[in-house]
Design goal:
It contains 5 helices and 16 strands. With 251 residues, it is mainly beta. It has one domain: Acetoacetate decarboxylase-like (Beta Barrel), CATH 2.40.400. The longest helix has 11 residues.
């Protein structure tokens, strides 16, 4: 499956790894950087969505080829020894895409109304994203000012840890799945937060504080590859604190 991601903003907060462990399914543990787990509030525009083969024209016919998305994600290590992303929630402005992703992949998509505006302010790019979930009216909003500089690759260390992620996990019918994706390395710019509403973060049970680490990214063309089952591990590393089954609001 092919798609394009644009207008992406990464806002991340360091948190106690125990907060992340509490929302993970069996077989996953928090991926730690500098002693902390990290939670991200990340909006972006998905467009040019194309299903493979003879289904390629279906997305355009059903008008699901472009929509806004606002997700809450964290970083994990699986019982397969590999790292990836765990999505606590994914709020998207396209009902058919939401239903398909939930049924086919077990991802925690919710139907929401999203909006994004881009303006110029004091020589900087101002990106203002907001989202309201249809199911429970949970809100998310993020307004940032991005530096007017040449985009660059993510710096080694924390930036690379947060943005250069090419795999995700999901919990589907009692099984842990792993999917992979591919795209060119991100080109990013530093930004500063002007306003934030973390309602969809707190709705997961996660509590954050302080100003986030913020980056904005240039558009990328993304290929999504098939999900595969993660084989159970008998490693002692995963026998203690390996995460719990998703709570009711996460299923």
């Amino acid at each position: 499956m092919e798609q394009r991601w644009s207008r992406i903003v990464w806002a991340h907060w360091p948190i106690d790894p125990n907060q992340v462990a509490a929302i993970l399914p069996p077989g996953l543990v928090p991926d730690i950087f500098d002693g902390s787990a990290w939670i991200g509030l990340i909006p972006f525009q998905m467009s040019h969505l194309r299903l493979p083969g003879i289904l390629s024209g279906l997305t355009s016919a059903l008008r699901v080829a472009s929509f806004g998305e606002f997700n809450v994600r964290t970083y994990v290590r699986g019982s397969d020894g590999r790292t990836g992303v765990w999505f606590a929630t994914l709020d998207a402005d396209q009902l058919l895409a939401v239903v398909t992703a939930r049924l086919a992949f077990g991802l925690h998509y919710r139907h929401a109304t999203t909006r994004c505006s881009i303006t110029t302010e004091t020589g900087c790019e101002r990106l203002a994203w907001e989202s309201v979930r249809r199911q429970d009216s949970a809100r998310a909003a993020l307004t940032v000012l991005a530096d007017d500089v040449e985009p660059r690759v993510a710096a080694s260390g924390l930036e690379h840890f947060l943005v250069e992620r090419y795999a995700l996990y999901s919990w589907w019918h009692g099984q842990l799945l792993r999917g992979t994706l591919s795209h060119a390395p991100w080109k990013v710019r530093e930004a500063r937060v002007i306003g934030v509403d973390d309602g969809t973060v707190t709705a997961t049970g996660i509590r954050i504080s302080g100003d986030p680490h913020v980056l904005v990214g240039e558009p990328v063309e993304v290929s999504i590859h098939p999900f595969t089952r993660v084989r159970p591990s008998t490693s002692r590393y995963f026998s203690v604190g390996a995460g719990r089954r998703p709570s009711v609001h996460q299923r």
